[in-house]
Specification:
about 350 residues; two-stranded antiparallel ribbon; 13 helices; about 35% helix; globular
């Protein structure tokens, strides 16, 4: 639109092509020319500035890449693991102009679904936004009960494999192997936290010399207590002490940010506060954000923008992102001026 308006303003009706002659621009150009009588090429630079400056100030939907089904579309989908007949992929969102020779921070998200099901597109919006801010952002597939008939153990094994694969392929992906964050919601938050805290549940045959421990955690109402009073205990009761992230915190647990609603029926506020206290006792950082009256899964609903802005600030504090968040509280995003 801006280009056509610029072109039409410096052309005459005689030189203008048929596409422009018949367009709606013919309706607005007389008014435009009355206000801005710029008919000669010597005014082109001024007119270009006049039209392009407001373009860069326009708000756009967060994560405004090419879209499919209303969601941002990943730049590539890459297989990171194969188990039997099952292939698992990461859905990759790259920063603008990204090259494999770059060395930028990365984050991998794991979807929620009670270890039963789910889809990587749950975190497409967050991934697209963080990619626009300069990170390589990935949403990972992993085996679930519905897709593969597997137990929660396999969810964690796949999560560890995904982090390990990203670190092992950092050079070709253009990421910094020492700045890889993991994030997720609900059971996906458990998977992310598990990659950082659990010693076991590694896939047989993988190179254990490549660490699966992320360098930061971004957790949305995470299932990180699987003890007798925690979530999913009946399904993991034979191995819960080794499987529950809150019971395996130590000084190596990476910096963490947690988002939790005060009306969450699955993860009580006290659980979030206990996790924070245990992190503090281990001399590890944990930022806990509580959202009054919000229920489970709120982070992709009413508080999508607010939680993502806080995640942005957390990653900024670690040096993963630069500048201020470009996302507004209403969910719109400002295009960068450079």
């Amino acid at each position: 639109m801006w280009f056509n308006l610029l072109r039409a303003a410096i052309e005459t009706p005689q030189t203008r092509g048929p596409a422009l002659k018949d367009s709606k621009l013919e309706v607005i150009l007389p008014t435009f020319r009355t206000i801005h009588p710029l008919h000669t090429m010597k005014h082109l630079t001024f007119l270009s500035t006049l039209l392009l400056v407001p373009f860069f100030a326009l708000p756009v939907a967060a994560g405004n890449k090419s879209k499919a089904n209303g969601l941002a579309k990943p730049d590539q989908v890459v297989q990171y693991k194969r188990v039997g007949d099952t292939s698992l992929h990461i859905h990759v969102f790259n920063p603008p102009g990204h090259k494999s020779s770059d060395k930028v921070p990365a984050i991998v998200f794991f979807f929620g679904g009670g270890w039963n099901g789910g889809s990587p597109n749950q975190f497409y919006r967050q991934a697209a936004y963080l990619a626009s801010r300069g990170m390589v952002a990935v949403s990972a597939e992993y085996r679930t009960k519905k897709s593969s008939g597997t137990s929660p153990q396999e969810c964690v094994k796949d999560g560890k494999s995904a982090v390990r694969w990203l670190r092992g392929h950092a050079a070709e992906l253009g990421i910094d192997p020492n700045r890889i964050a993991a994030g997720g919601g609900s059971a996906g938050g458990h998977v992310a936290a598990a990659t950082a805290t659990l010693e076991g549940f590694n896939e047989a045959g993988e190179n254990a010399e490549t660490s699966c421990r992320p360098d930061a955690l971004v957790l949305f109402n995470p299932v990180f207590d699987n003890g007798p009073e925690g979530y999913g205990h009946d399904r993991v009761k034979d191995y819960w002490k080794d499987f529950s992230p809150i019971h395996n915190i130590d000084s190596n647990t990476p910096p963490t940010v947690v988002f939790l609603g005060t009306n969450d029926k699955l993860i009580p506020v006290n659980t979030g506060k206990r996790f924070q206290d245990l992190m503090k006792q281990a001399d590890a950082r944990c930022d806990l954000h509580l959202y009054e009256g919000q229920s489970h899964g709120f982070f992709n609903k009413e508080k999508y923008a607010e939680t993502l802005i806080e995640a942005d600030k957390f990653l900024m504090s670690l040096g993963y992102l630069k500048g201020q968040p470009t996302l507004s509280a209403d969910g719109t995003q400002r295009l960068p001026l450079n």
